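A reminder before we start the practical. When you read a complex entry, don't treat the lines as separate problems. The point of joint prediction is that each chain is placed relative to the others, so the output describes one connected object in space. Small molecules and nucleic acid strands, if listed, are placed in the same frame. In the example below there are two entries. Take a minute to note the order of the lines before looking further.
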Amino acid sequence: MTFIASAPSVNPPCAAPDRAATPAFEAEDLCKTYKGAHKPALDHVTLAIPRGVIFGMLGPNGAGKTTLLSTLCGLLKPSSGQVRVDGRDVRQEAKGIKRVLGVVPQEPAIYPTLTARENLAYFGRMQGLSGDHLETRIRACLEIGDMAAYADEPVGRFSGGFKRRLNLVIGLIHEPQLLILDEPTVAIDPQSRYFIHQRLRELHAAGVTMILSTHVLEEAEQLCQEIAIINQGRIVAQGPLDTLLKSQPGKTIRVRLDCDPPSTLADTLRLIPGVLAVHLIGRELRLATDRPADVVVPMTVAIQASGIAIVSLSFGTATLEQFFLSRTADGGPH
Amino acid sequence: MENLAKLATSVVKESRIILRDRQALILFFIMPVLFVLILSLALRDAFGDRPGATFAVLAVDEDGGEVGEAVVSAFASSRHFRVERVSRPAPDAAELERAILDGRYKFVILIPAKASEQARRRVEELASNIPPDRLMNRPVELRLLADPTLRVDYLTMVRAGLMGTLRGLEMKLLGKQLEQNLKLLGLPMELPHDLNGTRIFGEVREESLHTGEKHIIPSSVQQNAPAWTLLAMFFLTVPLSVSFIKEREQGSLFRLQTMAVPGWVVLGGKTLPYFIINQIQMASILLVSVYVLPMLGGDRLDIGNAPLALIVLGASASLAAIGFGIAVALFARTAEQATSFSSAVTMIMAALGGILVPLAVMPPLMQHFAMVSPLAWGLNGFLDVFVRGGGVREVLPEALGLLAFSAVCHALAIMRYHARV
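Here is the predicted structure of the whole assembly.
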């Protein structure tokens, strides 16, 4: 399956060498206060998203994610500050930026009474494609979405997962080098989510820079190389995912087991000196401790004594969820 | 050029969406046509004059003699007429026109001064066997002024009745004169030559008034055809605004905003198909009113002699309706809000604008308020053409008003659209 069609692209060639060092997206001291609002939606946000990464944009509801994304793609005028996309000012060179930028909205932005092919053709023409090139791109996108067999059916009849696939490939019709995805896998079945994740990985491999706004922290953990957490309009954490997680030492030992443990195992583990709490989530065991070195050996012995094998064991780094919660603990209802 | 191609693509996309919605198509085209047919037939007698109605007639009798007497008695003897008689000084022409256009009288019969004397002298000449081409006295001419909205069959009937009265009087005067000749002079009775071809009274000239006055009562079809055309056009604001809001809610409008697509292409692509639908609505309603309605026993719509004026009005009204729809779509937060607001405002504008109840039957205060409704402007424009025989020049004020309304709505919509970007 290929993402970049063999036909010539309407977009400018891939980033020139001098441009490669320029971040794909940059926000500098960005502020946005909506008319009548008491608090700013964006409060001095400074952000740099390097090229070629999948960048996770995380934050609780109302944190300012949508405002930030809308500002980054030039749809919203900031109260102050600057936004550069592909090294160009987003307000002054909006037209040029829009040609290299793809956006995948949260809700499937499609016309239900039109077929998948008609939807792709319409948005393709709106992106300035025509003729054979458009036809080639439509075929490529149908292939990416694995929906060629349903190309001529009204998309209103599609399942939720298929609609989201189409939503994604419409965003790819003009072969964008920069892609903004707003919750692309919300409310779909695991198979469709896996399908979309695979397509995003392939796009990443093809060098496309992506901003992924998501509530599913596991998704961000699996896909993103870098993240930013936004809370109450401020960036509260930003950087490579591994670095961020290592920056917060975890106090939890996570153990994956090869089968469901008996409920008595938790009671046994609680008796080990230094264990503060035990949580059993399916086949995952989580032990909170302030003395991990003292706990690991008796814990392993107790698990093996109950006839269960250990699949994996980790300690020392926080999960993204723990990291996220620690940075957004003061998140209000706004 | 690229943007024009995008506009054409948007029009095709929107047309496809509309054409695939069968229920909407029924609502757009079948419903208004059915309404015109049903209401024009049902209300045929509610507009203009009903059979059995009593018509107010003003006899301006400057003669004060036998002729005036005969005409007034003839009309007074019929229960269908309520005759009022004025003699000298006769009201002037403008006053008489106003009396008719204000609806006080359906007809005015003008009996000229010395009509009886002139008639008698002409009879004497005829009785003296003077050849018709040497008669000194001209035929006496009466005039009949009529309400322009009066049905033609009633007008013909009244004119025939008046002529019958005058013919009767003519025979009576001639008979009297001949009898007098025989008695007094002992002359042998000779019939004057060519009595049948030489009349004492000339043909009654009927004059239907044409004027710039606005509030005249149209016939049922003259009222219903343009009224329902306009209402159908303005009701199209509901699906137009809902479609726009759906596009916004589904995110496709957001997606278009992230593309290099100018706002006018997005708005134009959305509105042009609705403009075409409006024109088809108008054409189908007019065709049904001209050709189908008479087959069902209704009155045929006389569309006047100014097709260009109708095109100008149709286009202006459509642009006004579309502007309103787009403005509602951009200011409403939800489809439900847009539906209830645009349909409520359309109904209020329709009620106020003489769509549901003709302006002419409204009290003067309401007629004054009606002028705030764009539907009233449109309706007046159509009535200018259908009833008053107007052309492009006559409908220009209404068309310009509708275009100004459209421009204001579009400007607000574009400002709102760009305010989001």
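Discuss with your neighbour: The first helix of chain A runs from residue 17 to 20. What might explain this?
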